[in-house]
């Protein structure tokens, strides 16, 4: 039995929990049974109904008190503990596997996804043991585009996370509805989403006395990002059903959900793979209720 789902990651405050809430409601409205799995022990007030909660296995507060750790060290400890007790998670997921689509809400500590290996081992254990097809949805706050230095950091973070996790991966500029409130961007939005020629950023980096000091380093980092040619972004306003729908189409294609339930030939599969992503998500009149639910 193959299951499908999303690994929702991104820096603190990038919108992961809000995303899991909005995405689960959207998917339910288009007819999927969704199980949201909270793997962030620092998430206390969850806005969504949680099928599995890491809090039932380990509590961040207890870890911090018992081992005299701060919140970051505590989270790394919790991920380590989860990896060692992966059978707990596997046994909770197994009964849901038959008919549920999974959303895994991970902690925002970015070092868990490009430095430490516990989170990656947990994800890959789920993939191997449960035959799950997972896409990493990496959220980055769109306001980072307003500052060239922060934008380069976001690119670097996205690239290192992609390389580390080795999953089908979609980078998302979240809270795109707020982008205009941060002032005018130096270039149009496509420049930031398509990541085609970063040399244009150099002029703007030079205007800032703080970043001009690191001119050479930033240039080299931009060259690395461009040489890999892996990073681009899609945009998201979680309150806009069209924006969420477009992202769902990308994710469904990346993890193979669009092929599930098709018993066709190779020709049939290739037709679907090559087709434009114009599904019928917007036929549903009850989608109008989506905004009201958030
Ligand atoms: N305008 C707007 N606000 C958003 C959007 N997504 C999230 N937010 C807001 O951003 C803030 C942070 O969102 P969270 O979902 O808590 O972010 P998180 O990544 O789970 O944060 P941590 O748990 O700290 O890692 C909240 O105030 C959300 O309401 C969006 O698409 N548009």
Describe the structure.
The chain has one domain: P-loop containing nucleotide triphosphate hydrolases (Rossmann fold), CATH 3.40.50.300. Helix content is 46%, strand content 13%. The chain has 13 helices and seven strands. The protein has helices spanning 16-29, 60-67, 71-84, 86-93, 118-130, 148-165, 189-194, 201-207, 209-212, 215-228, 241-255, 266-274, 290-293, and strands at residues 3-9, 34-38, 50-53, 101-105, 132-141, 169-174, 234-235. A seven-stranded parallel beta sheet has the order 3-2-4-1-5-6-7, sandwiched between helices. α6 links the parallel β5 (132-141) and β6. α2 crosses α3, α3 (71-84) packs across α4 and α6 crosses α10. It is globular. The structure holds guanosine-5'-triphosphate. Guanosine-5'-triphosphate binds at residues 10, 12-18, 40, 43, 108, 174-175, 177-178, 237-238.
Please identify, by name, the CATH architecture.
Answer: 3-Layer(aba) Sandwich
* CA gyration radius, whole angstroms: 20 Å
Question: Could you state the oligomeric state of the chains shown?
Answer: single chain
Number of domains: 1
End-to-end Cα distance, whole Å, is 32 Å
Order of helices and strands: EHEEHHHEHEHEHHHHEHHH
How would the global form be characterised? globular
Number of helices: 13
Average of the residue pLDDT scores = 87
CATH-assigned homologous superfamily: P-loop containing nucleotide triphosphate hydrolases
Write the layout of secondary structure elements.
Layout lengths: L2 E7 L6 H14 L4 E5 L11 E4 L6 H8 L3 H14 L1 H8 L7 E5 L12 H13 L1 E10 L6 H18 L3 E6 L14 H6 L6 H7 L1 H4 L2 H14 L5 E2 L5 H15 L10 H9 L15 H4 L1
Parallel strand pairs: 1-4, 1-5, 2-3, 2-4, 5-6, 6-7
Helix pairs in contact: 2-3, 3-4, 3-5, 6-10
Bound molecules: guanosine-5'-triphosphate.
Organism: Dendrobium nobile (Orchid)
InterPro entries: Gpn, Gpn2, P-loop_NTPase
Family: Belongs to the GPN-loop GTPase family.
